[in-house]
Amino acid sequence: MSKSGQDWDEGGPERLYVITGGRAQSDEQAELDLVTLIVAREDSQLGMQPELAAILRICRTPLSVAEISAHLALPASVVGVLLNDLLADGRVEARVPAAKHPDIALIEAVIHGLQKL
């Protein structure tokens, strides 16, 4: 089957290449992992790249990078490039989840409680 404008594969590598402008990472690389929370600082603007506008719309409340990836049906690596662009422009804020490391005292209390059962 020939590739024409009507045969565009929404999940194909060509689309991902276009979305990121062929980049594997952004010029401004932030430390993002799948649980980093993203919050929009502003609303989307008319004429924005659709994926960037979608991120700003869905991140009115904090969402993790993994959740954004799922909402947009895009690989996390592609979402990371887009988020780094938005971070560099100050359009979103990245927040590290509060419980990055487990609370050892809480885990010990749970273990002791379970042992008493």
Q: What does this 3D model show about the protein?
A:
With about 120 residues, the protein is mainly alpha-helical. Helix content is about 45%, strand content about 10%. The chain has five helices and three strands; from the N terminus they run αβαβααβα. It has helices at about 15-20, 50-60, 65-70, 75-90, 105-115, and strands at about 35-40, 65, 90-95. The protein has a three-stranded antiparallel beta sheet with strand order 2-1-3. The protein is elongated, with a radius of gyration of 19 Å. Residues about 1-5 have low confidence and may be disordered.
Topology:
Elements: H1 13-20, E1 37-40, H2 50-58, E2 63-64, H3 65-72, H4 76-88, E3 92-95, H5 104-116
Antiparallel strand pairs: 1-2, 1-3
Write down the secondary-structure element order: HEHEHHEH
Low-pLDDT residue intervals, each spanning 5 or more residues? 1-5
Number of strands: 3
Adjacency order of strands in the biggest sheet: 2-1-3
Percent of residues in helices comes to 40-55%
Q: Determine the strand fraction and express it as a percent band.
A: 5-15%
Q: Given the helix and strand composition, which structural class is it? A: mainly alpha
Tally of contiguous helical segments:
5
Using only C-alpha atoms, the radius of gyration works out to: 19 Å
Backbone shape: elongated
Distance between the termini: 64 Å
Average predicted local confidence, pLDDT: 80
Note the main sheet.
3 strands, antiparallel
Oligomer: single chain
